[in-house]
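haha ok so turns out i had the wrong file open the whole time. this is the CORRECT one, sorry everyone. sequence first:
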Amino acid sequence: MKTNPDALQAALYVCIDDHVAPRRRIGRPPKPTDAELLCLAVAQVLLGFPSARHWIRFAHARLGHLFRHLPRQSAYNKRLNAAGPLISQWSDDIAISDQAPAQYWPAQLAAKGLPADVMARQLYLHALPDDWPSMDYDTFLTARRPLMAQVVRDAFWQLESDSYRPVYSAPSVVPEQRTASMLPSRRIKLSELLDAGLISAGTVLTPAWEEYGQVAVVDDEGRIRLDGQIHDTPSGAANAAGAGTNGWTFWLADTPEGQVTLADLRAALSEED
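then structure:
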C-alpha cells in the first residue's frame, strides 16, 4: 500500500465521494474539496504519518498531480477540526438528535431487527468498537480510528486483487436504454434553445456539480458569458470553469419550472423536431 499511494488515493476517493454530503455555501467552494480533504486525512492514517507536518510535506512532494489545491499545514488542521458535519446525515441521525448512544442504541437495535451476521457486518463497516455506546467521546474516537483505517485497508486490498469480482444485485426495474432514435438526430446549438423560447437572454446558468460555484449567463446571441469571457458552447464554458466535462450536463438553467440541465432542454427541443 505504501508503495502505491496513487492507487490508494483513487480507491479512497471512489469510496468517500459518495458519502460526503453536498453543502450549500455562499461564495466560492473550498479548495481542496471536502471529499479531497477526507481522502488526505484517511490516507495520512493508512500510510502511517502521525505528524500532519510530515504528511503535508509528503503530499506536496508525491501527490500534487492528484490534488490541484493541496493545503498548507495550518489550513489542513483548521479544515479537519471543522470536518465533523461532512459525512452524510440519515433520517435516523435527525431522529436521534442529541441523545447519548446508551439511550438510542438499544432502541435502534430493536427497531431494525437485523440478523446477527448482518449486524456484525454493519458494526465492522462503520468501524464501531466493542461496547462503544458506553464510551466517552474521546475514548470512542481513539478506539475507532484504527478500525476505520482497517476498513479502508481491507477495501484497498480487495480492489487491488486480480481475483476480485464485484457482485451487484439485479435492479428491480431495468432502466430504459438510450437508443439511437432517442439521441438528438442533429447537432443542436444553444442559440436554438433561445430561438425556441426554452431559455432567454439573461438566463442564469449554475453548475450541477456542488464543488463548482461559478455563475454564467446566456447572452442574446445564445452564447455563455462567464467571468467576463464569452464562450460559444456549453462545454467551452465548462472547461473555462475548470470542470473539463460535457457542458450540456454540467450547466443548470434557471427556468420558470426550476433548474433544468441544458441537456434536458436540448432533448425537449429534439423531441419537438
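The chain is about 45% helix and 10% strand.
again sry for the mixup
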